[in-house]
Amino acid sequence: MIEVDVIIIGAGASGLMCAIEAGKRGRHVLILDHANKAGKKILMSGGGRCNFTNYSIEPSNFISKNPHFCKSALSRYTQWDFLALIERYQIPYHERDHGQLFCNDSAKDILTMLLTECNHVDARVQLNTSIEAITIIDNHFHLATIQGHYKCQSLVVASGGLSIPKMGATPFGYKLAQQFNIPVIPTHAGLVPFTLQPADKETFSLLSGIAVPCIITNKLQSFKENILFTHRGLSGPAILQISSYWCAGDEITINLLPSINIETDLKTKRQHKIKNTLKTILDDFLPKRLLGCLLPETLLNTSLQDIADHQINLIASQLHNWTIKPNGTEGYRTAEVTVGGVSCDAISSKTMESHQVQGLYFIGEVLDVTGWLGGYNFQWAWSSAWCAGQYV
Q1: DSSP element (H, E) containing 279
Q2: What is the pLDDT of residue 168?
Q3: Positive or negative, the Cα torsion across 304, 310, 315, 316?
Q4: Which of 65, 255, 297, 372 has CA 20 to 30 A from 36's CA?
Q5: 0.90 exceeded by the pTM?
Q6: Considering the domain boundaries, does residue 113 fall inside one?
Q7: Are residues 207 and 120 part of one domain?
Q8: Are 93 and 34 in the same domain?
Q9: In angstroms, rounded to a whole number, what is the distance separating the alpha carbons of residues 76 and 71?
Q10: Residues 156-190: pLDDT tens digits?
């Protein structure tokens, strides 16, 4: 049997970060992962360039049944702390919309940095190691794996959620929590495209590839971003953001003209005796194919001078308040995150340790903390892992 101070389950963003911090304290750390490569989700994230954090990080950017839980970790290890590490390694990066930060070159830069830091503190990564059983004997955790038996004082669960199973995602962390009677908030796919009802799919699949800016709203949240029509349904940043707040059966409302009041614009043009058809006028704002799906062809071909006030009101309602009920989501297969997870009420927000099982810690996506699109989930990984690393 091999004995170490700390075993971390999961060689992803949070697991590697926690290993670095624990190793800095002189702890003997072993990271176990069933995958054949460390940091797979890091490497694929951000189109291979890793959206590793955001200039603006607030607790309101996160979803949890306990909305206060994330505040402590995010305030103690901030985006500026992670940027200091990035800059120490001279990794070039750039800002995109909404403060999102990406590597200039490759996500490999982030993973190489983390693995180098692990090497500096002698934290060992062991891959291709599936865990078969975990027990507690004499205040130590005993792990039976396909590679042998291990023993540790502190056990950190950094196994992630259910998103993208082809990358190795499993419910391991939730099952382990349940083994020790730690509650788990029901999970669902987040940051994920919508599928459409059959009739809507038949109509809107013709628009595949079209992207337009919009404001998307449901009863919980609103986002101003692009929407993308696909051959299966709706995607794009606006859809991914709202999907984390969506429940089956809910409608979403989409303002396809977020920068103009089309009712006022059309009535003003009509007063100025503009005789163009509605289609010609609206072509300035939206793609022809999209207009053809949302408004009757006869109305689109009508001169603005022949369109009554009540018709303009209906046009405005359709374009500013297009309401649609998704059939579902693409599910964990394409979801970027998992909403729900190990209940934060059962975990210390200071140390990430379980209240009821001494020495057992949960960090990163396995917890019921889900960030918005834009680097927030990586920052939660860094922050929660840093906190646990100070105590394990």
Answers
A1: helix 278-282
A2: 87
A3: positive
A4: 372
A5: yes
A6: yes
A7: no
A8: yes
A9: 9
A10: 999 999 998 888 899 999 999 999 999 999 999 99
